[in-house]
């Protein structure tokens, strides 16, 4: 119809801005994917990036939290760990739903050699490592009493995990940027819905101290 033709010929400012952002994103992400393969410009740093990948993977965080929960002998410790577990599971669910809805393909230069992935992890938006890094870092800063250097380290770790996703070629810059934002917001949700023996007594009765 004439109306549709007019819309095609006069794309909105938002449409142009989004398309430009995506073009810059693809161009920048390709340039930054310097560890995407052994033979890439920074291929020798790839093992270090893979180590960062493991440090932000869901499996070690879930198993580590479950292990600490099983060993915890205080109510306060169990409460924090139970909420961390809830946070990690909520994050997996939310990222899987968004990845499944958006279905953005991973960058062409990525090698799909990640360990232990879910089927939705063939998609790249948002970066699950970035969401986890942001929320775990915020969780740690808010619930552990740490010296300043360790607090700085927690923030640096999250930033470096996010950066490593782009350097490895796993993600575009916008996947990681949105991942950070989502992880940050998810922490606010968890803080708001904080589980305690008062509002979830059954859950805590399951994990009575040994
Ligand atoms: C152990 C418990 C309590 C539950 C297990 C729940 C479950 C289904 C865990 C799966 C964990 C898993 C395989 C996570 C995938 C992590 C990953 C590779 C994400 C991709 O990150 P991205 O940054 O590349 O998007």
TrEMBL record:
The chain crosses the membrane at residues 81-102, 139-164, 176-195. SUPFAM superfamilies: Acid phosphatase/Vanadium-dependent haloperoxidase (SSF48317). Its EC number is 3.6.1.68. It is a multi-pass membrane protein. InterPro entries: PAP2/HPO, PAP2/HPO_sf. Belongs to the PA-phosphatase related phosphoesterase family. This is Polyisoprenoid diphosphate/phosphate phosphohydrolase PLPP6. It is found in: Endoplasmic reticulum membrane; Nucleus inner membrane. Residues 79-191 form the Phosphatidic acid phosphatase type 2/haloperoxidase domain. The keyword Transport does not apply. It holds the Pfam family PAP2. It catalyses: (2E,6E)-farnesyl diphosphate + H2O = (2E,6E)-farnesyl phosphate + phosphate + H(+); (2E)-geranyl phosphate + H2O = (2E)-geraniol + phosphate; 1,2-dihexadecanoyl-sn-glycero-3-phosphate + H2O = 1,2-dihexadecanoyl-sn-glycerol + phosphate; presqualene diphosphate + H2O = presqualene phosphate + phosphate + H(+). Keywords: Endoplasmic reticulum, Hydrolase, Lipid metabolism, Membrane, Nucleus, Transmembrane, Transmembrane helix. The gene is PLPP6. PANTHER family: POLYISOPRENOID DIPHOSPHATE_PHOSPHATE PHOSPHOHYDROLASE PLPP6, SPHINGOSINE-1-PHOSPHATE PHOSPHOHYDROLASE. It comes from Echinops telfairi.
């Amino acid at each position: 119809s004439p109306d549709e033709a007019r819309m095609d010929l006069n794309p909105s400012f938002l449409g142009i801005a989004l398309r430009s952002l995506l073009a810059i994103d693809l161009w920048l992400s390709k340039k930054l994917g310097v560890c995407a393969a052994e033979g890439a410009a920074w291929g020798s740093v790839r093992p270090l990036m893979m180590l960062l990948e493991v440090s932000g993977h869901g499996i070690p965080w879930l198993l580590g939290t479950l292990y600490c929960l099983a060993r915890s002998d205080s109510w306060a410790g169990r409460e924090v760990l139970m909420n961390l577990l809830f946070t990690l599971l909520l994050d997996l669910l939310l990222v899987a739903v968004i990845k499944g809805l958006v279905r953005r393909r991973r960058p062409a230069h990525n090698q799909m050699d990640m360990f232990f992935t879910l089927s939705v992890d063939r998609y790249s938006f948002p970066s699950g490592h970035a969401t986890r890094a942001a929320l775990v870092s915020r969780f740690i800063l808010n619930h552990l009493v740490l010296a300043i250097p360790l607090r700085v380290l927690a923030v640096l770790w999250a930033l470096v995990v996010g950066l490593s996703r782009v350097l490895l070629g796993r993600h575009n810059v916008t996947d990681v940027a949105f991942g950070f934002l989502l992880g940050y917001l998810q922490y606010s949700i968890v803080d708001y819905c904080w589980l305690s023996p008062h509002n979830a007594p059954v859950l805590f009765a399951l994990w009575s101290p040994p």
